[in-house]
Amino acid sequence: MSFSSDIKQELNNLKTLSNKELVKYELIGYLVSKNIYIKNKKIEYTTESDYNINRFSKLLSNLNINHKIDIIGKIFVVSIKTKNIENLIDFSHNEIRLKKEILEKKNQEDLKAIIRGAFLGSGSINNPDNKYHLEVNFSNKESLEDIMKILQNLGIMVKKINTKNKYSIYIKEGEEISKLLALIGANSAVLKFEDIRIQREMRGKVNRLVNCETANLNKTINASVEQISAINKLKDSGKFNDLNDNLKEIAELRICNPDISLIELGKRLKNPVGKSGVNYRLKKIIELADEL
């Protein structure tokens, strides 16, 4: 199963159906999601997920709302007469919207239930092994804006897509996704997501460290090639013997140790010097070779 399916399976099994208020607000979340359509004084909810349809049907049954479930190919379709739910949702604009009083609610558990319903209704999340992306789609701009306000009030920062054909919220930050999953009650998914997130961050740190060390090694090798080339040039010209003892010593060390750092070279001198001292001597050798 996909990561999204695992989350929806977990949410489907939440033991919240005994609380009529939470059931009502979770149902409201479903009703403002993308997969709801109004037809001939009926609304239809469509989905391919048996977890979605199972939970949605439980919510309706719990509130004694008559509904019909049809199966068309791989798609489940739930039909409900609008008069049976007009006390829950606003149909006045010939589309489904949250009622104004819902946005004024202070009870966080009710608001969380709305978000849970919206995610179950039309939400998805990528496999976090690949990338972080959680998205919930809505049927109109107003529902998108209303859900964004609720999430902001609950401390979850989201971004939105608001175009002619698409209204959605999305999150690409791992920490915010984890917070939202916890908020809607997907606690097992949070643990799995955090475990994957930690592993990804560790892999990222290791890769950055390896890349840094590789870059440093390449830098050392390139510098060493230039230094050895200068030393050989001085030897071929017969000018090497004119160098003072300090320059001769560092030159011979570099020839014998082409891949070690300046710090290591400095430690191997008869009278050890630091990185800057070694760098000064090798630069002097290069300058002398350039003058030939």
Can you walk through the features of this model?
With 292 residues, this protein is α+β, with helices and mostly antiparallel strands. 55% of the residues lie in helices and 13% in strands. The chain has two domains: 3-185, Homing endonucleases (Endonuclease I-creI); 202-290, no CATH class. A hairpin with an 8-residue loop joins strand 5 (123-125) and strand 6. Helix 1 (3-12) packs parallel to helix 3 (50-62). The longest helix is centred in the C-terminal third of the chain and has 51 residues, at 187-237. The protein is rod-shaped and about 105 Å long. The model has no long low-confidence stretch (mean pLDDT 87).
CATH architecture descriptor text of the largest domain: Roll
Largest beta-sheet details: 4 strands, antiparallel
Number of E strands: 8
- According to CATH, the homologous superfamily of the largest domain is Homing endonucleases
* Number of helices in the DSSP assignment: 11
> Numbering strands along the chain, what is their spatial order in the largest sheet?
1-2-4-3
Large-scale geometry = rod-shaped
- The CATH topology of the largest domain: Endonuclease I-creI
CATH class of the largest domain: Alpha Beta
Helix proportion range: 55-70%
Structural class: alpha+beta
CA distance, first residue to last residue: 71 Å
Q: Could you tell me the mean pLDDT?
A: 87
Low-confidence stretches are: none
From N to C, what is the helix and strand string? HHEEHEEHHEEHEEHHHHH
Proportion in β-strands: 5-15%
Domain module count: 2
Q: What is the radius of gyration computed over CA atoms, rounded to a whole number of angstroms?
A: 33 Å
